[in-house]
Inverse folding.
């Protein structure tokens, strides 16, 4: 019996098999079919005959379907919606894969974006000054036969001389850093970030005035300019203008302006004083105007728009030589835009880190994309039929590519959404890691377009390869049941896995090397015992009490000794020239110096390698000097001991001893010649504590302070912490690279989970057969694990030489450096293997334990 | 018989012209085409629906579902203002082609 409704249903099914149609299309065709059927019936045909003819009249489903897909080919926005729908459906069906993909991508993206935030911040330093490309820092280049040093502090008169003689220099400012105790009413503050500047400072750098006119204000010797924060700290909400501050109990300054200083500048000062007012602090006008030998003032220039800085460097090359004959000194103009990321000699110190981290960011993103590619191609087999069918009904290759790309881009935008959440959550700890307060503002158009670009790139990068592989399937072979070999792209997948793990291992080795270098320089014998040394800085009038305080402290329990000195070892910066008996006139040596009392060597536990220490029993020692080994080598006299030396154009004194070289700067720089002299003001008191809990001694130190200087705030520090802060950059780099290399390993392992579960699935039957034939669990597990371990091992072999090469070049930046050791590579290797093993084993064990009956029945 | 490419080119103006007479549904329209051409235009009936879909997407026709007295739903198409403009344009082109053909030095060979 002919059943019209059943026949129509069959016919519809045949249509649907070849393509999917928009809403209503089939209903319309069906209505046509019925009309034709009724017409034929009316003209006398039988049911079956009429239906067959009507079906024929409507047309073959392939032909009509193809016609429809042609009309759909013009890409309409509606199609994106359909792509997205299909993609979402796919993700629901494969929740595990989708989760791995999204999680991996979003972790990769957040890591990448965090680093980009950091990079953006680093690159933004001091870019906000108008005409920033015309601002330069003067660097003194001191050319010697054996080495060239680049010094930020230059002689004071240079600035004025340059402005006077070279019309292309618009203006110049000197700066001189200082610290004071600032008193307002009954409140006292210790201020470390005080700077003396010329009035032009505020014309060169644009720190917008909140009130007052800072540049005009600084022309008056008794005026002071504060930052907003400082003003708030001193006066609360009150108007700052005209308020009088007392510095060190000696000089008063009247507030003439308040400026706003943004976060991303290297000029983070709190208080600005007129440079000329240094005369009120005992620096003579002559010293300021005509001392060409001291190197104390950082100097900045702003050039005319038409000026050529290289030309100016050439023209000024004789300036310092004219004033200091016999020395080979010239000035280098370092662009302000390079100041943050480049050392004074132009080496890209910070820039190197920016580049390294940007590369790491890109690598992590690529690793995350690789996961997506691997999983997508691995799953190709299961999508082969769908793709074959789509092609048969006329889907063009370009349409398939678009569909697959739409899936990966959708995935990547979902990952982006998650990444934004992750970033907001991780920002505080990332801020602690980098010691920066970074902010992430979604309303920022640059950030938004950056995010969209990263997501789009990740989506396209991840989807492109699968799109081309999948869309290349030949429908004839996939639809006749010959399933696409799961081996399609196997080699590429292995290569990508290899890439992921090579990069991860490389980063792990880098972390190990960086951290061990940090440990090396922190623990290296530096020539004295920096542990258990506490110090306090004597402010202003208080300075006169330094001897008193020293005596007060020395007798207390817990204290092993104390010394007064002018600089902590980490603060020995300034250089001066010296003269000595028997000096070859061609030999010029710039000495660093520190002023110290007779107990300095004892307190710091330095070693005297020749001669003797200062002694209280010999009053003449007050005029004597100690020098370090490097100074002795440089002076070029047979026996420096007993030689008379004149330092800083001061008195002649005898060299009574030679101190073993000790590091007073970062390990990046070699030890320079040093003079220790007891003559001069001493601002620090350093005390050696008994080892153990410093708590009671700190309290006792505070009590002693309060007895001697009740009017001053007690602030203290530890010398070893000061040393640690010298290696802040290295420690940070180690921590950042370390955390991100762990992330890279994590993301790689996510990919491994996906591939391992896929392989285990693929091999279900093989495992079943092997077990039936008597293979044990351990054998099965070993078989599955070895598939991947082989590649992880190979990744190690590739990464090691690369890491060795890169890291040995990095270590060359340090004058004192650790050596590459096998353990660094072995550690990275074992971490990668162990993590990979744990990852795989979860899946392998499940397959290994599975009952073979189940796995074989699955067919 | 008309060649495939010529048929493809003429479908649009033919369908739009038929709709000038008023709203109509696919099956009826096909019957009219067959009548008009005396069978010279042989289409698989189903092929006009994708064409309508395209015309609708391009905004040349609009459609709605209307129930027949016996309760069957049919999709009725009508020509839009844009469709009329497009049709005028196309017809002008066709007329130009036909005029050119008529002016050929040798008349077109007659079919027997």
């Amino acid at each position: 019996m002919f059943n019209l409704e059943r026949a129509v249903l069959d016919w519809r099914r045949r249509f649907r098999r070849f393509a999917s149609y928009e809403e209503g299309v089939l209903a319309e065709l069906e209505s046509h079919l019925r009309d034709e059927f009724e017409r034929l019936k009316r003209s006398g045909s039988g049911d079956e005959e009429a239906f067959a003819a009507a079906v024929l009249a409507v047309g073959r489903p392939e032909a009509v379907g193809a016609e429809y897909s042609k009309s759909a080919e013009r890409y309409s926005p509606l199609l994106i919606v359909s792509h997205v729908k299909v993609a979402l459906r796919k993700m629901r069906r494969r929740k595990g894969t989708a989760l791995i993909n999204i999680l991996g991508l979003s972790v990769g993206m957040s890591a990448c974006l965090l680093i980009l935030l950091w990079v953006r911040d680093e690159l933004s330093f001091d870019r906000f000054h108008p005409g920033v490309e015309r601002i330069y820092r003067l660097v003194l280049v001191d050319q010697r036969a054996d080495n060239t040093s680049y010094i930020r502090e230059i002689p004071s008169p240079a600035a004025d001389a340059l402005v006077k003689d070279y019309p292309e220099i618009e203006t110049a400012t000197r700066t001189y850093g200082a610290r004071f105790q600032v008193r307002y009413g009954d409140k006292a503050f210790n201020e470390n970030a005080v700077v003396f500047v010329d009035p032009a400072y505020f014309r060169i750098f644009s720190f917008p005035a909140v009130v007052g006119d800072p540049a005009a204000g600084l022309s008056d010797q008794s005026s002071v300019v504060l930052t907003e924060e400082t003003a708030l700290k001193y006066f609360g909400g009150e108007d700052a203008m005209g308020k009088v501050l007392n510095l060190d109990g000696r000089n008063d300054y009247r507030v003439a302006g308040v400026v706003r200083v943004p976060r991303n500048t290297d000029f983070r000062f709190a208080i600005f004083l007129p440079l000329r007012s240094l005369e009120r602090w005992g620096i003579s006008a002559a010293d300021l105007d005509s001392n060409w030998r001291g190197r104390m003032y950082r100097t900045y220039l702003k050039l005319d728009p038409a000026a050529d800085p290289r030309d100016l460097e050439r023209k000024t090359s004789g300036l310092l030589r004219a004033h200091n004959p016999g020395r080979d000194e010239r000035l280098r103009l370092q662009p302000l835009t390079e100041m943050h990321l480049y050392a004074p000699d132009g080496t890209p110190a910070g820039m190197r880190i920016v580049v390294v981290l940007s590369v790491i960011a890109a690598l992590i993103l690529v690793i995350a994309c690789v996961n997506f590619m691997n999983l997508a191609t691995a799953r190709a087999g299961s999508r082969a039929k769908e793709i074959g069918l789509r092609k048969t009904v006329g889907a063009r290759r370009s349409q398939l590519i678009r569909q697959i790309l739409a899936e990966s881009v959708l995935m990547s935008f979902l990952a982006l959404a998650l990444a934004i959440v992750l970033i907001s959550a991780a920002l505080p700890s990332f801020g602690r890691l980098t010691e920066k307060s970074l902010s992430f503002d979604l309303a920022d158009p640059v950030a938004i377009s950056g995010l969209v670009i990263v997501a789009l790139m990740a989506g396209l990068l991840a989807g492109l390869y699968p799109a081309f592989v999948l869309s290349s399937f030949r429908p004839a072979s996939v639809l006749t049941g010959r399933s696409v070999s799961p081996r399609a792209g196997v080699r590429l997948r292995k290569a990508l896995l290899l890439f992921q793990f090579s990069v991860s291992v490389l980063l792990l080795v880098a972390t190990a090397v960086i951290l061990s270098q940090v440990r090396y320089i922190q623990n290296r014998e530096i020539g004295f015992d920096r542990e258990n040394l506490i110090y306090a800085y004597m402010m202003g009038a208080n300075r006169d009490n330094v001897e008193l305080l020293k005596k007060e402290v020395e007798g207390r329990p817990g204290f092993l000794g104390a010394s007064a000195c002018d600089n902590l070892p980490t603060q020995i910066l300034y250089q001066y020239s010296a003269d000595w008996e028997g000096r070859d006139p061609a030999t010029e040596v710039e000495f660093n110096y520190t002023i110290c009392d007779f107990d300095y060597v004892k307190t710091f536990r330095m070693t005297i390698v020749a001669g003797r220490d200062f002694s209280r029993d010999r009053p003449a020692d007050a005029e004597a000097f100690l020098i370090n080994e490097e100074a002795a080598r440089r002076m070029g006299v047979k026996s420096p001991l007993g030689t008379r030396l004149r330092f800083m154009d001061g008195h002649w004194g005898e060299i009574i001893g030679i101190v073993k070289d000790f590091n007073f700067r970062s390990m990046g720089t070699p030890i320079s010649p040093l003079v220790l002299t007891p003559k001069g003001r001493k601002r620090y008191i350093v005390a050696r504590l008994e080892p153990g809990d410093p708590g009671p001694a700190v309290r006792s130190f505070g009590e002693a302070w309060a007895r001697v200087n009740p009017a001053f705030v007690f602030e203290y520090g530890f010398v070893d912490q000061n040393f640690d802060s010298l290696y802040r950059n290295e420690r940070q780099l180690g921590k950042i690279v370390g955390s991100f290399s762990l992330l890279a390993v994590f993301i790689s392992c996510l990919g491994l989970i996906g591939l391992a579960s896929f392989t285990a699935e693929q091999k279900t039957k093989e495992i079943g057969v092997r077990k039936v034939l008597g293979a044990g669990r351990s054998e099965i597990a070993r078989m599955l694990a070895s598939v991947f371990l082989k590649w992880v091992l190979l990744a190690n072999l590739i990464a090691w030489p690369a890491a060795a090469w890169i890291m040995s070049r990095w270590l060359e930046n340090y004058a004192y450096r650790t050596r590459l050791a096998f353990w660094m590579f072995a550690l990275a290797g074992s971490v990668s293997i162990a993590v990979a093993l744990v990852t795989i084993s979860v899946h392998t064990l499940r397959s290994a334990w599975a009952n073979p009956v189940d796995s074989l029945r699955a067919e | 018989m008309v060649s495939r490419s010529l048929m493809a080119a003429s479908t649009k103006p033919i369908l739009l012209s038929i709709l000038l007479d008023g709203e109509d549904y696919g099956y009826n329209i096909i019957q009219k085409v067959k009548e008009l051409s005396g069978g010279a235009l042989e289409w698989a009936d189903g092929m006009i629906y994708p064409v309508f879909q395209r015309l609708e997407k391009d905004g040349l026709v609009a459609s709605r579902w209307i129930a027949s007295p016996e309760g069957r739903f049919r999709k009725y198409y009508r020509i839009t203002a844009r469709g009329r403009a497009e049709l005028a344009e196309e017809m002008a082109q066709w007329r130009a082609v036909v005029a050119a053909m008529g002016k050929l030095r040798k008349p077109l060979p007659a079919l027997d």
About this structure: Chain A touches chain B at residues 22, 24-25, 27-29, 31-32, 34-36, 57-60, 63-64, 67-68, 70-71, 74, 76 (CB under 8 Å). Chain A has a mean pLDDT of 83. Chain A has 30 helices and 23 strands.
